[in-house]
Amino acid sequence: RHGAGTGLREILKAHGKSGGKMGDSTLEEMIQQHQEWLEDLVIRLLCVFALDRFGDFVSDEVVAPVRETCAQTLGVVLKHMNETGVHKTVD
Predict the structure, then answer these.
(1) Backbone phi and psi for residue 61, each to the nearest 5 degrees, phi listed first
(2) Annotated Gene Ontology MF terms (predicted)?
(3) How many CA atoms lie within 13 A of 91 on its CB side?
(4) pLDDT tens digit string along 17-64?
(5) Residue ranges of the domains in the chain?
């Protein structure tokens, strides 16, 4: 999960503007497809937050590397979403 989150974050940094789009679609359809694709990613990342229970004890602190990485990935996804999608995620 940690490696997948890291890989996904890096892919989204490079290609996040074009994910989910189909070449034979109109501009409006591409925009809609892209937002739906981003929304699906957000849902999956939120599931990781809800289901991940791993905590690594370092000194007197607990670190959750999977959730930290997924939070960074979520930040990258939200940069590519429209305002409505961001508000849906927060709500």
Answers:
(1) -120, 160
(2) ATP hydrolysis activity; DNA binding; TBP-class protein binding
(3) 6
(4) 888 888 899 999 999 999 999 999 999 999 988 887 767 667 777 667
(5) 2-90
Report d(CA 71, CA 65) in Å as an integer.
10
Q: How many helices (H) and strands (E) does the chain have?
A: 4, 2
SS (H, E, C) 16-49: CCCCCCCCCCCHHHHHHHHHHHHHHHHHHHHHHH
Rounded to whole angstroms, how far apart are CA atoms 23 and 90? 31
Predicted TM-score (pTM) of this structure: 0.81
Q: What is the pLDDT of residue 65?
A: 79
- Residue 72 has a CB neighbour count (10 Å cut-off) of 13
And the tokens for 91? 């709500």
**Is there a contact between 36 and 20 (Cβ–Cβ < 8 Å)?**
yes
